[in-house]
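Async update (no meeting this week)

Hi team, since we skipped the sync, here's where things stand on the single-chain job. The sequence we agreed to prioritize is pasted below, unchanged from the tracker. I ran it this morning and attached the output directly underneath so nobody has to dig for it. Comments welcome in thread, and please keep replies under the output.
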Amino acid sequence: NTTTTGQRPRSHLPSTKLEQPVKSRAAYIYPVLGATRAPSSGAPVLQTTGTTASTYPSSASRSVGEAMARKKIREYDSKRLLKEHLKRLAGIDLQILSAQVTQSTDFTELSNQEPWLSSMKLVVKPDMLFGKRGKSGLVALNLDLAQVRQFVKERLGVEVEMGGCKAPITTFIVEPFVPHDQEYYLSIMSDRLGCTISFSECGGIEIEENWDKVKTIFLPTEKPMTLDACAPLIATLPLEVRTKIGDFIRGSFSVFQDLDFSFMEMNPFTLVNGEPYPLDMRGELDDTAAFKNFKKWGDIEFPLPFGRVLSPSESYIHELDEKV
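Output:
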């Protein structure tokens, strides 16, 4: 059941389509003629880039009842949820650290709460639900805390334009600077019939230029991410890292399902002392599942899309909804 296609997942398609009501996400993800349903056995379907054949479910079969309330969350929250629940569900203790900075942040108080900020070299970047921050010169590396404070001061509240949308920067994420050689890519996306999992050992800001190296499987709904299911994604990795990365992919998938993520992307993640370490992460949650996840999600925030401003009537409805 190995086939090939040159289509990219939803995260790499034009953002203008993603903000519109979705009639059929399959039309955006895999616009392939002659697509056929996944095997009835429920086996994962491997897909690598190349031609125009596919064994993914057809657009017609995926368009009914597929709507999902996908809400983007900040990178800070994506990493917080992954760190907390990956340990609970898979026994993997991610050694990631992060701090959030806004207009109200007191750096002295923050450094007291997070002592590592004063003792480590740091990375700072906007946490505003838009991508390509590195290519836009909005990521600063290898700074001390004083330099981070200056970087934030010069950019906080400054309006920037990304993807045709303009808005001020209001929120930053600060993390340890992690020197690394290898960058990996991982994304998981759900729809009504299952999940699409993509992995590459050539991640980073040039992922789109290296899309021919991405491996993708489709896992039908209710089918677990077993060792056999994961095997095609990691088959070409060196033996010394294959098991560790395979366990990380499977553990991330467990978090994805348990917390009702609808989209999760790490680009890149790396290995630090042999352990997985997400450097850049994006996440979306199915907010219709909030009623059963409020304890797991904790104090989660669902920011408006970058550049989006509520009208007075929308603000009133939003305030009412927050009280329900």
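Quick observations from my side:
The chain has a mean pLDDT of 80.
The first helix runs from residue 15 to 18.
Reply here if anything looks off.
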